Amino acid sequence: MTAYDVMQISPIVPVIALEHLDDALPLAEALLEGGISIMEITLRTEAGLNAIGKISKSLPQMNVGAGTIINIDCFKRAVNEGAEFVFSPGINAELIQSSFDLDTPLIPGVATASEVMLALNNGIEHCKLFPAISAGGVEALKSFSGPFASMHFCPTGGINIENMNDFLSLDNVLCVGGSWIVPKQAIREKNFAHITELCKVALGAIH
Ligand code: 3PG
Q1: I need a surface site. Which of 41, 45, 143, 196 has the fewest CB within 10 A?
Q2: Candidate from 15, 134, 180 with most ligand 1 atoms within 8 A of CB, to mutate
Q3: Structure confidence at residue 171 (pLDDT)
Q4: Domain 3-204: which CATH number of 3.40.50.720, 3.40.190.10, 3.20.20.150, 3.20.20.70
Q5: Full-prediction pTM beyond 0.85?
């Protein structure tokens, strides 16, 4: 799988900070039921790493990757656990090298022209825009499309059902990431049917 393949799986990439490992499979099943077959499980919670392992072993139809990959060590641990791809909030040479070494697609976060140039100079044409709204949102992406025509983005950070189409309608956006589709409260209440509904509503609202 390439980073392009990852960003083609779904127009919406759920960004998940899982509090309890037991919620991993019901959440993955709820997303599949709602039409979303990709998960970015962040490593910012204790349960994240094991959740990746559990889902990758039990639900092969779910494409599971890791998020909040901020150093080589967590990159390696995520891949060992079964992450098929990784997202990072930022970009640096070490993460890029790890992506080659571990033969695993890295979708790094960029927020400035210099960071886009670091990506492109290393053959990376698929990045997050992070944090999307505070980094300039739609206007930043339009500005990047001039000098960096080959770069494609997954804006993440502040995206919701109200503004997702502003991003998805841009030529240099393949998908958006967000946590709004997997509300913590719904997971705490084990209201997975609500998450399925949010997926269906969001996918149906894309135009
Ligand atoms: C994150 O890393 O938390 C993501 O950018 C999600 O941002 P969001 O909560 O604004 O969707």
Answers
A1: 143
A2: 15
A3: 98
A4: 3.20.20.70
A5: yes
Q: Is the CB of 159 under 6 A from ligand 1?
A: yes
Instruction: Check pocket membership of 178 for ligand 1, CB cut-off 6 A.
Output: yes
pLDDT in tens, 10-31: 999 999 999 999 999 999 999 9
Ligand 1 atom closest to Cα of residue 89: 2
Provide CB contacts within 8 A for 181, sequence distance 6+. 12, 14, 36, 195, 198, 199, 202
The model's pLDDT over 154-178, given as tens digits with 9 standing for 90+, comes to: 999 999 999 999 999 999 999 999 9
Catalytic pick among 29, 40, 81, 84: 40
Distances (CA, A) of 146 to 62, 136, 184: 35, 15, 38
3-class secondary-structure state, position 134 = coil
Q: What percent of the chain has pLDDT over 70?
A: 100
